[in-house]
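quick one, two chains, predict together pls
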Amino acid sequence: MAKVLIENLYKIYPAEKGRPEKIAVDNANFEIQDREFMVLVGPSGCGKTTTLRMVAGLEEITRGSIYLDGKKINEVPPKDRDIAMVFQNYALYPHMPVYRNMAFGLELRGVPKDEIRRRVDSAAKILGLLEPDNLLERKPKALSGGQRQRVALGRAIVRKPKAFLFDEPLSNLDAKMRVETRTEISKLHRQLDSTMIYVTHDQTEAMTMADRIVVMRYGKIQQIAAPLELYHRPANLFVAGFIGSPPMNLLQGTLEAAPNGTLEFVEKVTSPHLPFRGVLSTDTSRKLSSRQGKEVILGFRPEQLHPNATSSNPTLQGILEVVEPMGAETYLYLKTGAHSCICRTTETDLGLKEGSKINLGVDLSRAVFFDPKTEETILT
Amino acid sequence: MKPTHSSFPWFSRLALILLGVLFLLPFFWMVSTSLKPLNETMKLPLEWLPTSPQWHNYPDAMKAMGPFWLYARNSLFLAFLNVVGTVFSSALVAYGFSRLDWRGRDTCFFVLLATMMIPFPVVMVPIYGLFRALGWIGTFQPLWVPAFLAGAFNVFLLRQFFLSIPKDLSEAARIDGCSEFRIFWQIILPLAKPALLTVALFQFMATWNDFLGPLIFLAREEQYTLALGLQALQGTISGTPWHHLMAASTLVLLPVLVLFFLTQRTFIRGIATTGLK
């Protein structure tokens, strides 16, 4: 089991044949604790896979250091790093049967034959490769996508590595299989009790599996936090929009003085629309006092909008554009004066008509505020 | 989708049949002539089939050629070494040109490709000089040692195939603990079997049929290969015994033909998938 430390890590691809220099990873700093499940998430091209590949030793490090259990591994070849990696397209050896695919790494390390047999069998049992059909003698091409991914997991497990690396392992699976394998990997993490670094572009995967999440964009780390903290306290507009589905509602406006000495958020709209106005709590107002009269962006989650407006909450008026019944909950898409908002409610029998005018209550107790220029959170 | 009877236009079929017949014609003529008596071989108007097949032409031709089995052994020996040498060395070089990153790789590859444009007769004399300096004239070495130094065409063919093998496999192997050579040997080569077989077959045919090489570098008759041995039947004092020459040619061609039919499925797949994913 292992701790991974990433220090001032850079990956710069030099300019080549008319292509400008590209900074794929820009000064990454973070630590992955022993037995932690760390997810690197971000849109494509954000540097998450490059970071993972540098940890694996498949990509040269331009600057900075990576430590595994306190030992600097920059120059250590992949095979000596004691890590295992699961690839997006499985990367199973097509000419070897499943058993050999899983045993290959152990054979190369000179593990005795009966020990290999024991480990492969045990991994195969955990992953359900023995029942209902014994898949060990099959070639990868005779397996389904989900089975192939399980074999790829098996190949990693049998090695008993210090750390597991996953590079978007679920993105080639269909939706149902993805959910199944996701829980399977989470279970594995508990069973194996080992350090895992997992790369994905899917925020749902990140939220459901991670102990902590590293959000990346343009090679830069945006925020490192536990899933719920990311969700409720995003560090900037990007994280607010990227984490959570449906995404956070964002309204542009100004903070103005309210009659009782607190601050009031006033939505920026053009006439004839009426702006949304929401009075902030005393505590929030105190923290934001320096922003009085200035522009801010207000963010609140879809579930902080309630279809039954009460007097205690400020009211957001809008035209209901689309109703999406999801079964257990309903999404309401509405157009306010200048913005679009989404409401997520567990009430399913609302009797609302698309195109009608509705009033929604906004719970501002968990609202976040962003600086429109820096896009960073103001309240922390 | 496989072309079905209805989706395959009749004119394509016709063109293929005509071309097939055209290519088959010389072969048919060779076999037919090999079974004719000498006086029928040059007869006009043409006789397509022998009036009565002269099967004894075959043993006669083998006798007329001289030590046929010795020649065959020499040919096999050279073909074997050439195939082994070419497949191994070309694959190794192709691996370097396709799956390793190094400065100037593509430039080097173009230089290698450029050597394909130099015809053998141009370098014949300098090569002869080189081998003479090495003291190899009159030995088999000039005919098989170069095969271990990779040929441009085969390198090109294999490189294209290697490029189509996903990079992830090499990376997975690297993490599994493979050295670069082991990745080549245990991952890439087994996956490139069709392409390797193609190269092997090409090389076998090239060596088996090679006439100029043995002619230049070999000195003694007991070193002759079959291709060179055929020459004994050509232009003898009493004129060319065409029926014997054709019978011997048929015999010489037979191993190539058998080999092709045995490997044709893999062979054609090798050509068809070269460079394709």
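The mean pLDDT of chain A is 90.
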